[in-house]
Amino acid sequence: MEVTVPSSTQGVADRVIFPVRISDVVATLKGSVDPASASGVAISMELARIMATRRPAATTVFAAEAGEEQNLYGSRLRTQTYQNASVNVQGMFTNDILGSSTADDGTKDPYTVRLFGQGIPTTESAARSRQQAQIGCENDSPARELARFVVGAAENTYRQMNIPMVYRRNGFLRGGDHRPFFEAGFASCRFTEPNQDFAHQYQDVGVENGTQFGDLIELVDSDYIARVGRVNAAALRSLHKKRDI
């Protein structure tokens, strides 16, 4: 396994008031026969640790992307880098917001992880989009084919997880590191928890009117994160065997 820290400088732009050095942490597990959020980072790090002792058929990249909240800077750079090098990207997952299974009303669903997959790409021409809709293949995008493969490989009694597919690229008005990959024509999906508590996202730590705000370690469901990690592992293992999806 090779670990690198590729970097680039983001110039002044919307929400960037001065040049910023953006660095990603990338662990690459080389394949033997390659074809010609904090919770998500934790999952990637654990999977990299486990899989570092193995030699899969296909190369697997575990990346912690920078600049996601600004404008997906890290994932856009990675996508462009892969395109420039003509890398055959067979699939990409982003694990984003997976620290808890408890909603803001106290509802708990510790055995479900949502899997987002978009249909017709927004980058398709109007004529191409109409053609896909006319022949009924809007549900056969690379992202949804990948999502169906993941559900088939990882939704079983051994993983103890339900994986409902959500037929959208993302939550309403939300971004994600899988978006640049999808727009580049690569199959990409997003894992995220079933019920989000917005009091624990993008908030300063504190208590107001009896409500706890902020992202605190005592609010993290480690067992849930581990189960999501096993879903990822099962999907990756199956994809390594399949190799060409």
Number of helices: 7
Multimeric state of these chains? single chain
Percentage of residues in strands: 15-25%
Structural class: alpha+beta
**Whole-number radius of gyration?**
18 Å
Quick one: overall form?
globular
Low-pLDDT regions = 31-36
Helix percentage: 25-40%
Overview of this structure, please?
The protein is α+β, with helices and mostly antiparallel strands and 245 residues long. The chain has helices at residues 38-51, 68-71, 73-84, 126-134, 142-154, 178-183, 222-242; strands at residues 2-4, 7-10, 20-23, 25-29, 60-64, 92-95, 114-116, 165-166, 188-192, 206-208, 211-213. The chain is 32% helix and 17% strand. Strand 10 and strand 11 (211-213) form a beta hairpin. The protein is globular. The model is unreliable at 31-36 (pLDDT under 50).
SSE diagram, text form:
Blueprint: E1 2-4, E2 7-10, E3 20-23, E4 25-29, H1 38-51, E5 60-64, H2 68-71, H3 73-84, E6 92-95, E7 114-116, H4 126-134, H5 142-154, E8 165-166, H6 178-183, E9 188-192, E10 206-208, E11 211-213, H7 222-242
Parallel strand pairs: 6-9, 7-8
Antiparallel strand pairs: 1-4, 2-3, 4-5, 7-9, 10-11
Helix pairs in contact: 1-7, 5-7
How would you summarize this macromolecular structure in one to three sentences?
The protein contains 7 helices and 11 strands. The protein is an alpha+beta fold and 245 residues long.
Descriptive labels:
alpha+beta; about 240 residues; 3-stranded antiparallel sheet; 4-stranded mixed sheet; 11 strands
